[in-house]
Every structure is written in C-alpha cells, then in structure tokens.
Amino acid sequence: xxxxxxxxxxxxxxxxxxxxxxxxxxxxxxxxxxxxxxxxxxxxxxxxxxxxxxxxxxxxxxxxxxxxxxxxxxxxxxxxxxxxxxxxxxxxxxxxxxxxxxxxxxxxxxxxxxxxxxxxxxxxxxxxxxxxxxxxxxxxxxxxxxxxxxxxxxxxxxxxxxxxxxxxxxxxxxxxxxxxxxxxxxxxxxxxxxxxxxxxxxxxxxxxxxxxxxxxxxxxxxxxxxxxxxxxxxxxxxxxxxxxxxxxxxxx
Length: 252
Prior knowledge:
Order of helices and strands: EHEHEHEHEHEHHHE
CATH topology: Rossmann fold
CATH architecture: 3-Layer(aba) Sandwich
Mean pLDDT: 96
Shape: globular
Strand order of the largest sheet: 3-2-1-4-5-6-7
C-alpha cells in the first residue's frame, strides 16, 4: 500500500448519502471504511467499491458507544490504514411535536448525531494530528435553522455546526480542517419515510418540495458526495470551519 493512499471513514454508510459519499471517495482514490450499525448491511457498498477497482472495509459500530468506536477505529487503522478523513454522517430521525416528543426520542437523536460525531472525531484525530493532515466533514441540515416537528433533530444539526467550527479552531494548526454540509431536500429513504409519515405519495412530495427550491429540483445523494469530495481534497486545506448549504438555493 502506498503511503499516499488516504484512508477515509464514512459513518452511516450502508445506504443513502453515506453510501454515495463512500463510493465517491473510493472513486477519488481513497480506501474507505464503510461504517454502519449493521456490518452486514455495509457489504453491498463494499462489494460495489471493490467491483469498481477500489478497496473498502465493512465495519459494524454503534457510533454512540465509546468502546465500540474505539475498537472500530483501531480495527480500521490496522486493516486499512491510519484514517485521516472522517465523514460524520450517521443519523436518525424521531420526529414529533414538542409536547408529544418522548425523552427517549430526544436522547436517541442526540446520541447518534452529536455524541457519535464527538466520539468518532476524538478517536480519529490522533491519526490526523500525527499525519499532519486531516479532513473532518460533518453532516448538518437545513433543519438546523428550525423545522416544525424536529426539535431534537434541529438542535442536533445546529449543534453539529458549532462542533465543526470548534474543531476547526482546535485542529487547524495540525493540518486538520473541519467543515459541515447542510443538505436541503435530498431524495433518500429518509425523505421517503417522511412522505409516508405525512400521508403523501413520494413523487408528489418531491414535486411539492421542488417548487419551493430555486433550482426547481430536489437534491440527490451525489450532490452531497460532490461537496464532501471537495472538502476532503488536499487543495481544500485553506477552507475550514465552514457550513455549506447544499440546498438548491440560498439559506440564512
């Protein structure tokens, strides 16, 4: 293995945005740890990467479990190489209006998004600082600006932005950048589930969303992967602490 080959970890990578980022990173020439709660669910993505000539590893891990994260990162470093790129994409939704939202729904969302990003970043930063090179990409959302029925998710995604900016301050002197991507409406299983929850046909749901977006279409996972690919590049080393809204139009 050449020293110039970077190793990346993408969490929540068994499907959707995470899977697409993992495949994009592999196409960019990185070795990729495809990490999700169920290791078996990651294998399809690993097989697709291998079929395209890349190298990937399926890793099962609960990102909110400190011991599991430490073991997973150690395994990745041993089997693939020291990870110097991390995408904190793992996430869940437990939507409800505030008065109906259970404490367990609040905690579950906070644990996966914020605690997970914290634990993964903490476990990988030592490899990045030793290498004097690192790229951390955190997934936020336009929901960080507030969204009815998502007090937990909105708070977590806003928290990801503050976390990102703080990492940028702390890790910059070691050659490590931290940036966040805040997607708007992206066509995934998660948005399909939202359509089902509100009782709408998914095509009609997407069409209604597209009418509110300046570029007049909903986003695709590839739109997010392209942005993550930019942040992960060596030549993006002067871009840090930024939040980019990939939403088809401006956001405040």
